[in-house]
From TrEMBL:
<dbReference type="InterPro" id="IPR011330">
    <property type="entry name" value="Glyco_hydro/deAcase_b/a-brl"/>
</dbReference>
<dbReference type="GO" id="GO:0016787">
    <property type="term" value="F:hydrolase activity"/>
</dbReference>
<feature type="domain" description="NodB homology">
    <location>
        <begin position="76"/>
        <end position="257"/>
    </location>
</feature>
<dbReference type="InterPro" id="IPR002509">
    <property type="entry name" value="NODB_dom"/>
</dbReference>
<protein>
    <submittedName>
        <fullName>Polysaccharide deacetylase family protein</fullName>
        <ecNumber>3.-.-.-</ecNumber>
    </submittedName>
</protein>
<dbReference type="InterPro" id="IPR050248">
    <property type="entry name" value="Polysacc_deacetylase_ArnD"/>
</dbReference>
<dbReference type="Pfam" id="PF01522">
    <property type="entry name" value="Polysacc_deac_1"/>
</dbReference>
<keyword id="KW-0378">Hydrolase</keyword>
<dbReference type="InterPro" id="IPR006311">
    <property type="entry name" value="TAT_signal"/>
</dbReference>
């Protein structure tokens, strides 16, 4: 009986453990499902999907907004961009590398970090340009036009103060676009800049040279290349491989330019405005 009781007790423990594990899986699934349902129920009229604000005349700057992923050009030009900074440990390392090789880049700054770490940028942006990447890296596609405008305006002011120049480019966090983001971008007279190629650090753990070769092979004329100057240590693969990436692209005949210069040389002069 003692053995039988032990078997039943073990079965009970295993069954309960299975139920707990199943509950955890179901809980995670339920969370994802809830988020999906919430996204499906985001308001249309006046909500994140709406590209208009109220029924009065729309205050949208010049009345339009451009969205770019790359530039249509046969010139061997590439724009290197960095998102999410500035932060103390990584941004200076990136700036040092770019200075060493005289490479310009575009930094899409998060407003709260630009305000907190303005000293990182001071005197370091001569060949570079800055863009707006929101105040706190929240998903702007989940907010209405007024909220998105207030977020970007706050970030705009912080970046202008920290960098000494007003950003004219916007990259929304995660590359998520909604009508509200378009409306706010037009209102603030921004160009919306996404990307056509991005770093793939997770595919090349501990192999900066291999990662650099992969990116060099994927660049085409007019590419806007996405990198990050903050994050977890996996992203350091891309940053440690920057010298190889720069050398590889120059060997292919490419010239590095800022995003605005890329768009200007592709025939879109307003971008440099």
């Amino acid at each position: 009986m003692a053995d039988g009781g032990g078997r039943w007790e073990r079965r009970t423990v295993l069954r309960r453990a299975g139920l707990l594990a199943g509950g955890a899986v179901l809980g995670a699934g339920a969370t994802a499902q809830s988020a999906w349902i919430a996204d499906r129920r985001l308001a249309l009229a006046g909500g994140p999907a709406s590209a208009t604000l109220g029924s009065d005349r729309q205050q949208v700057g010049d009345g339009g907004v451009s969205v770019v992923w790359a530039a249509r050009t046969e010139q061997p030009l590439v724009a290197l961009t960095f998102d999410d900074g500035p932060r103390p440990h990584w941004t200076p390392m990136v700036l040092d590398t770019l200075d060493r090789y005289a490479v310009p880049a575009t930094f899409f700054l998060v407003g709260q970090w630009a305000r907190r770490h303005a000293d990182i940028l001071r005197g370091r942006l001569g060949r570079h340009e800055v863009g707006n990447h929101s105040w706190a890296h929240h998903d702007l596609a989940r907010h209405d036009a007024a909220e998105v405008h207030d977020d970007l305006r706050r970030s705009h002011d912080a970046i202008t103060e920290a960098a000494g120049v007003a950003p004219r480019l916007l990259r929304p966090p995660y590359g998520h676009l909604g009508g509200a983001v378009l409306h706010a971008a037009a209102r603030l007279d921004y160009w919306l800049v996404l990307w056509s190629l991005q770093m793939v650090e997770r595919q090349y753990p501990d192999d900066p040279a291999g990662h650099a070769r992969r990116i060099v092979a994927g660049v085409q004329p007019g590419t806007i290349l996405l990198a990050h100057d903050v994050g977890d240590d996996r992203r350091l693969v891309a940053l440690r491989g920057l010298p190889d990436l720069i050398a590889g692209l120059r060997d292919r005949g490419f010239t590095f330019v800022t995003v605005s210069e890329l768009l200007r040389r592709a025939g879109l002069p307003r971008a440099a405005g």
